[in-house]
Every structure is written in structure tokens, then in C-alpha cells.
Amino acid sequence: MMHISPDQIVYWQWEFVVINATLVFTWLVMLLLGIGSWLVTRHLSTDPQLSRWQNLLEVLVINLREQIQSTSGQNPDRYLPFVGTLFIFIATANLLSVVPLYHPPTGSLSTTAALAVSVFFAVPIFGVRQQGIGKYLHHYLEPNPLLLPLNIISELSQTLALTVRLFGNVMSEGLIGAILLSLAPFFFPIIMQALGLLTGFIQAYVFAILAVVYISAASHEN
Q1: Segment (H or E) for 152
Q2: Is the Cβ–Cβ distance between 27 and 89 less than 8 Å?
Q3: Which residues, in sequence order, are CB contacts of 102 under 8 Å at separation 6+?
Q4: Is residue 103 part of a domain?
Q5: Is there a smaller number of Cβ atoms within 10 Å at the N or the C end of the chain?
Q6: 116 CB contacts (<8 Å, ≥6 apart)?
Q7: Read out DSSP for 14-62?
Q8: Is 1 within the bounds of a domain?
Q9: pTM for the complete prediction?
Q10: Is residue 101 part of a domain?
């Protein structure tokens, strides 16, 4: 049976308490990242010869900093913890789709909405921290106070766009894979797994970059 969303895969239910695939695999991804980060960082070293895991971690952090710097034109360190967490979570959740019986939680509208809402609240938090509450709120009145409703709608639409974009990409990938699997069950799965790894990484990258764009625009000092 083909499921459009992991929300539809229910493992246990008691009255209004439901444990579905979205919840299970979200917590599994978080557990994997938590344990993995502890294992990688427990023996950090400054020696010239580093472990392969520390090398991988440093390459990841350096590239994230460079992408944030080039996108925002600001100090990347203030955004790195938040944006880096978004990227690593989404990328891991998507890339694990090659594991049998795994259902990416990013294929659930509730997960993508939660991630987008996190960005929605991060925008004013970073903006107020950088500019002060008065100057930040004033940007809603620019270039004309009459545009206040449109400026508010614009910020709300950003959240909606992030939600639908990630959810739609993951869902469509699953649907296309299921259709191709029914047509050629021995050939297309290999292709879809390779494409899934690529598109899963790209989706995480696009989501993180858009988060940087929205946050840095709100934090930019004129």
C-alpha cells in the first residue's frame, strides 16, 4: 500500500494519542544525530593528523560558514548554530530514505510546517537582537506605512512557501519512485536511490539558504 505521508502510517493509537511514522522517525533522526555528534566531538584534537570523522565535521562546518557568509554578507557565526541544525536535520532525514522501511519525516506536512515556523520565529528574534525592537519593527512601515499589511503578508507567505516546497519535493519524490517501481521493479529502484540522495541534499541546502536569506534580510542594518 502506498502512503502519501508518513502521518498515515500509524504504529500505535490509544484514543487521541497516536504514534505514527512521522513521530517515530523524527525521534530516530534526532537520536542518531545526538549520538553521532557526541561520538564525533568527544575526542576533538588540534593535532595535524585528525580522525576522519573530525575531518568530515570540520569540512561541513567550514562549508556551512562559507555559504552563510556569501549569502548574507554578514558574520556567519551568529547564524551557524540555527541554520546548521536545520540543514543537518533535513539532510539526514532525507538521505536516510535509502534505508528499507524508513519513511522520511520531511514527507509530512506537520514536520515541514514545524521547520518553517521555526524560521518564522527566528526572523524577528535575530532581527531584534541585531537592530533593537524599535528599528526592527520600523521596517514593516518601509517604504510607506500604507504597505504594513503587505509586509506582514509577505512574511507569512515566506513560511508557507518553505512548508510547501519541502513537503512537495519529498512527497513527489516518493510518488514518482512508487510509480517507477511498479513499472520496472528491478531497474528503477537503483536510479531512484541515487537521485534521492542528490535531491535530498539539495532540498536541505535550499531550505537552509532560504532561511539565511530571510533572517539576514531582517537583521541587516541600513
Answers
A1: helix 148-183
A2: no
A3: 25, 96
A4: no
A5: N
A6: 159, 160, 162, 163, 166
A7: ETTEEEEHHHHHHHHHHHHHHHHHHHHHTT---SSS--HHHHHHHHHHH
A8: no
A9: 0.84
A10: no
- Residues contacting 97, CB < 8 A, separation 6+: 103, 104, 196, 200
Q: Read out DSSP for 155-166?
A: HHHHHHHHHHHH
Tell me whether strands 17-20 and 10-14 are parallel, antiparallel or unpaired. Answer: antiparallel
Check: CB of residue 63 under 8 Å from CB of residue 140. no
pLDDT tens readout for residues 93-133: 988 887 888 888 988 888 888 998 899 899 889 988 888 88
Contacts of 218 (CB under 8 A, 6+ apart): 123, 124, 126, 127, 136, 139
| Cis peptide leading into residue 143 (ω within 30°) | yes
Distance CA(166)–CA(122), nearest Å, equals 18
Q: Which three cell numbers stand for residue 45?
A: 584534537
Question: What is the count of structural domains for the chain?
Answer: 1
Task: With CA atoms as reference, report the closest residue to 93 among 15, 174, 186.
Answer: 174
Q: How would you classify residue 132: left for phi > 0, otherwise alpha for psi between -120 and 50, otherwise beta?
A: left
CA 30 to chain centre: 13
Mean model confidence pLDDT for the chain: 82
In a domain, 104, yes or no: no
CB atoms within 10 A of CB 76: 21
Q: Which three cell numbers stand for residue 75?
A: 558574520
Lookup: cell for 219: 537583521
Each residue's pLDDT tens digit, 150-203: 878 887 888 787 877 777 666 666 555 555 555 555 555 566 666 667 777 888
